Amino acid sequence: MAQGKLPPENIVIKVERESANTKISALATLLRSYILLENGNPTLAADILNTKNILQKTDLEDYRLWLRGKALEQAGLLNEAISTLEILIKNYPQSSRAEESKLLASEAAIQANNPRLAISVIQDLIEQKHPKALLLAARSYELQGDENSALEFYRLATIYAAGSTEAQEAESHLKSGALALPKNQEEAITKADKLFESKKFVEAISAYDQASAFGELPPKAKLKKLEALVKLKRLAEARVFLNSIPSAQKEKAYYILSISFASDRQWAEARSFAEQMLKEFPKSKLTLRGLVEVGFKARDVKNKSEQRYYFQLAVRNFSDDIEVAKAQFELAWLEHESKNYNVSSKMLIEHLAKYADRDSSYRGRAGYWAARDAEQIGNFDNACLLYQALIYRYHANWYGYLAAQRLDNIRKSGKCTDKSAPSNPTLTKAIENLKTVNVFAETITAKEEKLIKRAEELATIGLFSWASDEFQEASKSAPKSPKLNLSIAKILRLKGDYVGALLALANSYPDYPQMFPEEMGREEWSIFYPLE
Predict the structure, then answer these.
(1) For residues 363 and 318, what is the distance between their CA atoms, to the nearest angstrom?
(2) What pLDDT score was predicted for residue 5?
(3) Where are the alpha helices (DSSP H) in 395-481?
(4) pTM of the model
């Protein structure tokens, strides 16, 4: 199962029998039913799922009902399938399989020639304009002989599912293209937005133009059209279209245009929009992000003058914001590359003192080169103190290894006085931040605990894709949770994905390479440093 292959059914049967009336047996039953379904035996799959063992021994009763409903539907036992799925819908409304069960029950009701039930079971999804629910509603009305209602729901599907296969299916049922046209601006904008989300930018622009026939587009729609123009590199049109966007919404427009012109290496245009964004929205997070992103665009093409300009603007106007940390480091590095070691050492120490306790991305590099540059200007006391701090936290890493060599050489030359503490408060803070590590606090609640338990049960029987669904739901509300990410990492390791496991757990332990054994549990260490 680690490689996506199902085990032979006889092996699963053996596990069921040898572990009767246990959680393992219940999970084996669930897995065997899935194997039977995949092998084209829905009748037996439904039969073995007619059990209370899964409810009593696991947290996966909704999966039993869902799989049994699918099996019964495939076996042609439609009314029994509908009844089973309705139990899931009623008793487990928050289940990850609830929506799919509603759609499956509706399809079964259509097959059973019960169009009213087909509509009622998906009524909430119809109201939400769910694409597949709209198609099922259209088919249900066709079954009732209500052609007008059927056509209306097919029309709605072409709008709310625009750019998808559902929209194509709906269009095939309409007698002419005119029947698919939006009736008001809200529908027209929805269609345009869906096309935009599907990355069909040419069609999206045309749809926004159609929406403007109902009246002036609202600001959000204008921004989407602007972005679509930019995606298609129609920058001249985008610049003209900017004039139609209200002042209050121009921040996002400036952001989009400055980055797009920078990507196109039109630096004068990029500056114009970036400066206007800073002038009109001087305290905005989006302004900061725009300046930093354009700065990195310049760095990536080795345009140091533009890189310096944007990073300086960002640091000057947002010096206390953690999102400016990478721009400040890049400025320090420009000074280092220019051999302005007095300036670069000072700036790298400032980076450590001001940002490294909140963003350690550049900490090791900043610490080592702050010390090296201090050496270059003859400030050996500062260099020694920084090397000592690096060795404390980075002794097992490359920067710690290099720092130990440099420190040894300085001491042998008699240039290190081995001061116990620095007198400069900025340097004191920098050294302190070099010695600390970041671990995210635990944030999970009972809701995420249950999702983790369900995921682990599914993974136990190799149903990793279903386990992933449960983990994704938990990650929506607790993305940095150490317990959640450890569980995800363990499952990925079980699949043989060691790199994925490391990256998952690193979300909670960003400084794991510098952590001491006592700062993590054995399970965490086994993910980061597997021995098998």
Answers:
(1) 20
(2) 74
(3) 398-412, 425-434, 446-460, 464-477
(4) 0.88
Contact yes or no for 291/327 (Cβ under 8 A)? yes
How confident is residue 396, by pLDDT bands cut at 50, 70 and 90? Answer: confident
* pLDDT tens readout for residues 202-223: 999 999 999 999 999 999 999 9
Average pLDDT of 166-189?
Answer: 88
DSSP state of 440: P
Topology of domain 446-528 in CATH is 1.25.40
Closest CA to 188 of 164, 215, 165: 215
Helices (H), 235-284: 235-242, 250-263, 267-280
Q: Which helix (H) or strand (E) holds 189?
A: helix 185-197
Rounded alpha-carbon distances, angstroms, from residue 131 to 106, 112, 159, 214: 14, 22, 9, 24
Residue type, position 189, single letter: I
User: Crossing angle, helix 250-263 and helix 235-242, to 10 degrees?
Assistant: 160
Amino acid at 9: E
- DSSP state letters, 362-374: THHHHHHHHHHHH
Average pLDDT over residues 422-438: 92
Residue-wise pLDDT tens digits, 294-310: 999 999 999 999 999 99
* Alpha-carbon torsion (61, 65, 67, 71), positive or negative: positive
Predicted local distance difference test score (pLDDT) of residue 83: 98
- Neighbour-count burial of 70, counting CB atoms closer than 10 A to its CB (0-12 exposed, 13-18 middle, 19+ buried): buried
CATH for 222-318, among 1.20.120, 3.30.1360, 2.30.110, 1.25.40? Answer: 1.25.40
Find out whether 393 and 514 touch, Cβ atoms under 8 Å.
yes
Three-state SS at 105:
helix
User: What's the one-letter identity of residue 416?
Assistant: C
- Nearest partner of 462 among 2, 97, 26, judged by Cα: 2
What residue ranges do the domains of the chain occupy? 9-175, 222-318, 327-436, 446-528
Helix axes 61-74, 78-91, angle to 10 degrees: 160
Burial of 118 per CB tally in 10 Å (0-12, 13-18, 19+)? buried
Q: Does residue 491 contact residue 505 with C-beta atoms inside 8 Å? A: no
In CATH, what number does 9-175 get? 1.25.40.10
Tens-digit pLDDT profile for residues 89-122: 999 999 999 999 999 999 999 999 999 999 999 9
pLDDT at 177: 65
Q: Which helix (H) or strand (E) holds 333?
A: helix 325-337
What rounded mean pLDDT belongs to the chain? 95
Same fold, 222-318 and 446-528: yes
